[in-house]
Amino acid sequence: MTPHPIVRDVTRRIRERSAPTRAAYLEQIDAYGHRDSGSDRMGCANVAHAVAGVPSNDKLRIVAERAPNIGIVTAYNDMLSAHQPYQGYPDIIKHEARRLGATAQVAGGVPAMCDGVTQGTPGMELSLFSRDVIAMGTAIALTHDMFDAALMLGVCDKIVPGLLIGALHFGHLPTVFVPAGPMPSGLSNSDKAKVREQAAQGLVGREGLMQAEMAAYHSPGTCTFYGTANSNQMLLEAMGLHVPGTAFIQPGDSMREALTREAVRTVLGKASTQAFSCPPIGKMIDERAIVNAMAALLATGGSTNHLIHWVAVARAAGIVIDWNDFSELSDVVPLLTRVYPNGSADVNAFQDAGGPGYVIGELVGAGLMHGDVLTVRAGGIAEFANVPTMQGEPSAEGVLHWEPAAPSKNEAVARPVSAPFSATGGLKLLKGNLGRSVIKVSSVPDDRHIIEAPARVFDSQAALQKAFTAGELDRDVVCVVRWQGPQANGMPELHKLTPPLSVLQGKGFRVALVTDGRMSGASGKVPAAIHVSPEAAAGGPLAKVRDGDVIRLDGVAGTLQVLLPDDEWAQRETATMPDEQREADGRGLGRELFAGMRRNALTAEEGACSWL
User: Fold this and answer.
1) Does the structural domain 428-606 have CATH classification 3.40.50.300?
2) What is the rounded CA–CA span in Å between residue 612 and residue 606?
3) H/E segment holding residue 567
4) Burial group, residue 471, by CB count within 10 angstroms (0-12, 13-18, 19+)
5) What would the pLDDT profile of 142-195 be if each residue is shown by its tens digit?
6) Binding site residues, as ranges?
7) Domain boundaries, the chain
8) Which of these, 47, 153, 299, 376, has the minimum number of CB atoms within 10 Å of its CB?
9) Is the peptide bond before 578 cis (omega within 30 degrees of 0)?
10) pTM for this prediction
11) Annotated binding site for [4Fe-4S] cluster
12) What's an example GO cellular component term for this entry (predicted)?
């Protein structure tokens, strides 16, 4: 299918804008891609250290037989329910590699923090920059330089972008991502949200709230709402980095092990579909693949975090994208799914309806994704329009089969391009005298896309929660929460603000949030202009706002304005971050270790990168 004119033009503009950096990147990975294997290239002592801990048969294969050696980078820990299943994956991978005449080693582990655990706590100030730490950890693991291919084990919010950024810095290696899947459905996301709102009003105590949360988050696997973690998996499918259809198969499904073994076969070029040499990840992830990921994000109303993370991912491959690119694509990419918080269904219902494969098939067929990209499979992106099925035992060959994901099995959850939920995508760029920001319009009721109300300015999310508890916000109000950007305090998610703001909206007040912080993929139904850039700590215009200023957030026209005469606004004094706020943020519980990252961070629109 010929690409849609806007998809074609955005891709061309990205290619032209990125030409120097992309060329330099490709030259760099080419230089590393034509070397002898590590066991031949490296000194004898180096090789001996690398294989000292492996069984003798593996030593023979690596050193004498020069068999392919796969580096495993794992984000396993059992603090994250989504990552707990990874505990046994290395043994499965090693067994399959040996069966195919290859070897595999755990090259290293990377940290993986759970935003669900750290929401509203000082730990959230480490969350965004943990992505760059994970990228560095991935580089440390792979820099042993004894590997012919790599498998990445990670699912959640900052972990996948971090692994991907790190892997792209070793872009000469064929690389496949290996997911673990979502937990089975528990208490519905909408019912959980209702209990949280009741708790915010004091109508439900801690015991009742705890019961609801335990019923929602109840077993190994990814959380079932369509937040950043599950958006990660959708985007990896759209970029062709998984075994097709792997994203949302639950950890307890017998097909899970078979798909993990298929990942080994895939990265070694011995997949069950047909013999195919898995391409180096750095050549596979070009501007077309990045556009495909952006289109998939928009079509599914995915996490706003990826307007930061995928900018950073693209930069790791020498590709430069910005929010204008997202906005232009959003004008033509329709919204094809309704998954919580953009609907009542969870990711398990999405998978049952056809899942990522259905969306990819629809977008490719309509020219809204590039169909001629490289992927880890011989069939290209067309293979990713299928869903896997299995017959027989998971360790046997030939048990996996793929069937077309289309047609949708539930059009209340996933619809065709010909009859979308919305003609445009789920995200909108906002511009005006308050800077540049984004809003997730797909989750906001139509009658709330435009909010005009007096501002109430807060220097922290705790201050907003205190004002809500005191009843000071029972009116039409635009809550401005500033000093929450990358340079100020590491840009923590402000997800704890969702329940009180939802309560105010439920009372009939017209409310909105404007912040230089983040709200994640679970931001709820309250209009939120987030990631405001430049941030207040960098002298951005949020530092000029005062209580009572009338702010207009217009998600239709794409504007965010303080309604003041231009000359008065230009002369308004810019506030500085209060000393007590600066002391409260960035000190204690390890936050001092990230001071250099805060100082060096680029803007949210530049990916908040600390390594450029």
Assistant:
1) no
2) 10
3) helix 566-571
4) exposed
5) 999 999 999 999 999 999 999 999 999 999 999 999 999 999 999 988 898 899
6) 156, 223
7) 5-34+68-184+219-404, 186-218, 428-606
8) 47
9) no
10) 0.95
11) 156, 223
12) cytosol
